Amino acid sequence: MSLAGLIVSGPVLDATEFGGHSGFMPASARPYDLMKDVMKYRKIDSHVHSDLYDGPPENNIAFMDRLGIEKMFISRPVTSGEGTPKDFRHYNDLTLKAMKKFPGRLTGQFTVNVPYQKESLEEIQRRVDQGMVGLKVYTQVKINDPLFYPIIEKMISLKMIIHMHSHCQLGLGGYRMKYDTGIRPNTSIPEDFADIAKRYPEAMFQYAHIGGGGDYEYACKMFTHLPNIYVDTSGSNNPEGMVDFAVKQLGEERVFFGSDNCYYQSVGKILASELTESQRKKVFFENYNKILEKSGNSIK
């Protein structure tokens, strides 16, 4: 387990318990009240799933209670199969069911598959009318494919963010490595996000899970001068300094807290960062809430 995960999931122990030197944590020092620190921040989870890999929405609620997460924006994207209208309507129905079961705590992000243009546009409007907020899409089509243009224009009119699964292979000798067998060829990469952000500067894009194991530094550097691209910190990988790097590179208002269902690590990596109190509040809550405010869905 990473330090970021340990910092939330377990107690803070004196170094002498591991045979270390007592000077590491003076005996006179007060024990660190970890959960008090965890619970003092308001939190919006901008990237989380329900009815996908981690079970029913009750599991989401349990972690919300444990970690003081005020609201989760859940989705059930099409991760396998053809992604027909029948598929994405079914997954959106699951998300809506979870919303209704836990109103005020879970809010759904709708999903579509853009080759089905007419059905996707109709589905977006239908789900917005039902209270869903924001689009979550996967790897069926790259974010800068012309098929996405009508969808993006619809989201601009709604003043809602487009949250896209992403990846960035690690570099080697100055070159980008080719996709390996675990990465789908239509996965959107930083270059794709940069391209579409320039085409639609009035749109808002969320580059998913910089903690997902890819080259987050490369991505953040590419997005530095593209103010309509935001990143979320979710994922199970927690390189030291990742959150600090993102905030330094993008600015303190373009980084969102997210878990991608990796709850302990995702809270822990913010607490383990060198961010100021003001910056932590922004990442945990305020930044995403400002996005919600644009469409009239902010949390009071």
From TrEMBL:
GO BP field: secondary metabolic process
InterPro entries assigned: ACMSD, Amidohydro-rel, Metal_Hydrolase
Domain Amidohydrolase-related: 44-260
UniProt KW keywords: Lyase
Domain of life where this protein originates: Bacteria
Gene3D superfamilies for the chain: Metal-dependent hydrolases
Coiled-coil positions: none
A Pfam family annotated for this UniProt entry: Amidohydro_2
Matching SUPFAM superfamilies: Metallo-dependent hydrolases
GO cellular component: cytoplasm
Any GO molecular function: carboxy-lyase activity
Name of the protein described by the UniProt record: Amidohydrolase-related domain-containing protein
Organism annotation: Daejeonella lutea
